């Protein structure tokens, strides 16, 4: 059994998600350096390449749009928008992918990987995965009829991940209302903004266990 909802109310929520996720960039400590034209002189085709890869992935599977938006949220909610969610297990890293809120439910990694590979062929070593995730979420929303927004660029990718922080920072199905308000409040988000973010999950597909 799955629940699939796509209507004007869900898109209103996603439009607010964009604004809320943008606020989380502040936690990265590099807000002053971000610019929508960051790659204009170093990789002018980057946004077009990312958009092409995102559209192709959603054309193959439409609910990938929701997955890319959710991937962006999970990345930003832990240590800021730094692509730490993409890091796999290694001798020194325990991947955030295996936090209970993400394990077996977070998707879209391969779309980001393909977009990164395509960009690297044109501009090697220039565009960060963190920026690709952010742009992909915006492009996914726009492609399926949702709102668009300006993405500030210039993030740097993390070389570390923190599964403990992911498990404690990401909202879970067992959290009480008070716990959720406190959790989002720790990120500088109000209860109203929390509801807007939660509402974005009405786009896409949900498992029964998410009930």
UniProtKB/TrEMBL annotation:
<feature type="binding site">
    <location>
        <position position="78"/>
    </location>
    <ligand>
        <name>Ca(2+) 1</name>
    </ligand>
</feature>
<feature type="binding site">
    <location>
        <position position="75"/>
    </location>
    <ligand>
        <name>Ca(2+) 1</name>
    </ligand>
</feature>
<keyword id="KW-0560">Oxidoreductase</keyword>
<feature type="active site" description="Proton acceptor">
    <location>
        <position position="74"/>
    </location>
</feature>
<feature type="binding site">
    <location>
        <position position="84"/>
    </location>
    <ligand>
        <name>Ca(2+) 1</name>
    </ligand>
</feature>
<keyword id="KW-0479">Metal-binding</keyword>
<feature type="binding site">
    <location>
        <position position="82"/>
    </location>
    <ligand>
        <name>Ca(2+) 1</name>
    </ligand>
</feature>
<dbReference type="InterPro" id="IPR010255">
    <property type="entry name" value="Haem_peroxidase_sf"/>
</dbReference>
<dbReference type="InterPro" id="IPR000823">
    <property type="entry name" value="Peroxidase_pln"/>
</dbReference>
<feature type="binding site" description="axial binding residue">
    <location>
        <position position="201"/>
    </location>
    <ligand>
        <name>heme b</name>
    </ligand>
</feature>
<keyword id="KW-0106">Calcium</keyword>
<protein>
    <recommendedName>
        <fullName>peroxidase</fullName>
        <ecNumber>1.11.1.7</ecNumber>
    </recommendedName>
</protein>
<feature type="binding site">
    <location>
        <position position="202"/>
    </location>
    <ligand>
        <name>Ca(2+) 2</name>
    </ligand>
</feature>
<feature type="binding site">
    <location>
        <position position="96"/>
    </location>
    <ligand>
        <name>Ca(2+) 1</name>
    </ligand>
</feature>
<keyword id="KW-0408">Iron</keyword>
<feature type="binding site">
    <location>
        <position position="80"/>
    </location>
    <ligand>
        <name>Ca(2+) 1</name>
    </ligand>
</feature>
<feature type="disulfide bond">
    <location>
        <begin position="76"/>
        <end position="81"/>
    </location>
</feature>
<dbReference type="GO" id="GO:0020037">
    <property type="term" value="F:heme binding"/>
</dbReference>
<feature type="site" description="Transition state stabilizer">
    <location>
        <position position="70"/>
    </location>
</feature>
<dbReference type="InterPro" id="IPR019793">
    <property type="entry name" value="Peroxidases_heam-ligand_BS"/>
</dbReference>
<feature type="binding site">
    <location>
        <position position="171"/>
    </location>
    <ligand>
        <name>substrate</name>
    </ligand>
</feature>
<dbReference type="Pfam" id="PF00141">
    <property type="entry name" value="peroxidase"/>
</dbReference>
<dbReference type="GO" id="GO:0140825">
    <property type="term" value="F:lactoperoxidase activity"/>
</dbReference>
<comment type="similarity">
    <text>Belongs to the peroxidase family. Ascorbate peroxidase subfamily.</text>
</comment>
<feature type="domain" description="Plant heme peroxidase family profile">
    <location>
        <begin position="33"/>
        <end position="211"/>
    </location>
</feature>
<feature type="disulfide bond">
    <location>
        <begin position="43"/>
        <end position="123"/>
    </location>
</feature>
<dbReference type="GO" id="GO:0046872">
    <property type="term" value="F:metal ion binding"/>
</dbReference>
<comment type="function">
    <text>Removal of H(2)O(2), oxidation of toxic reductants, biosynthesis and degradation of lignin, suberization, auxin catabolism, response to environmental stresses such as wounding, pathogen attack and oxidative stress. These functions might be dependent on each isozyme/isoform in each plant tissue.</text>
</comment>
<keyword id="KW-1015">Disulfide bond</keyword>
<keyword id="KW-0349">Heme</keyword>
<dbReference type="InterPro" id="IPR002016">
    <property type="entry name" value="Haem_peroxidase"/>
</dbReference>
<dbReference type="GO" id="GO:0006979">
    <property type="term" value="P:response to oxidative stress"/>
</dbReference>
<dbReference type="InterPro" id="IPR019794">
    <property type="entry name" value="Peroxidases_AS"/>
</dbReference>
<keyword id="KW-0575">Peroxidase</keyword>
